[in-house]
Amino acid sequence: MRRLFIFGLGYSAGVIADRFTAQGWEVMSTGRHGTLGFDDEGTVRAALADAAAVLSSVPPGGEGLDPVLDRYGDALAGRWLGYLSSTGVYGDAGGAWVDESAPTGTGRRSARAECDAAWLARGARVFRLPGIYGPGRSPFDRLRAGQAHRIDLPEQVFSRVHVDDIASGVLAGIAAPPGAYNLADDLPCPQNAVIEEAARLTGLPLPPLLPLDQAGLSPMARAFYAENRRVTNRKARRVLGWVPAYPTYREGLRAVLAAGG
What we know:
Helices cover about 35% and strands about 15% of the residues. By secondary structure, the protein is α/β, with parallel strands linked by helices. It has a single domain, classed as Rossmann fold, CATH 3.40.50. Strand 3, helix 3 (about 65-70) and strand 4 (about 80-85) form a beta-alpha-beta unit. It comes from Novosphingobium aerophilum. This is SDR family NAD(P)-dependent oxidoreductase. Keywords: NAD. InterPro entries: NAD(P)-bd_dom_sf (IPR036291).
């Protein structure tokens, strides 16, 4: 049986683990919902020795260091390597399209860009992800909790991806050459459009349209609006043979509702 070891079994990695298990893989993991402790070095190294593939979704640590490479990098040679990164490594593009050849490290995710580069140097498949949504993490949840925002920035666009499409992209990456792959849907758009569609589907009230300075956003959320770009998925389609099941937020939101979201 093929074995996948996942560092950091969080939201996206959990869905990936389920997809691999359904394909006959044995999955072992660290993280909130994992079976092993990251610091249990002897057990982790023993599991890595039996793994055909290793995937990390662990975010950067202090000073831009990657915790997995720093602790276990010497145990990863000779295995398929995958890393869940962020399209935030591209920084602000003024709303222009970016692909995997765009420069990285100029935006707010400088530490992520350093880790992204370190995994690429190891020969990993680096999956760069935009805004992630799915059951349990969607605009419906934010609307119900009164935490959704509509910001008056009509030229601001973002890309996003349904968590199921992340899982299918990583699975497709098992047979792909090393390199960076953007896993994003086909329709970058303003965040307001997504919130408005979620409200339309549920009948929940729309939050007011506010200027950025009056929205009461946290520093992290405010930084999210400091970057503006459209992310293309052409390479993933061409090289991985990946086709998103939810090419726009419209199909994705309906699927979340159908799943009980």
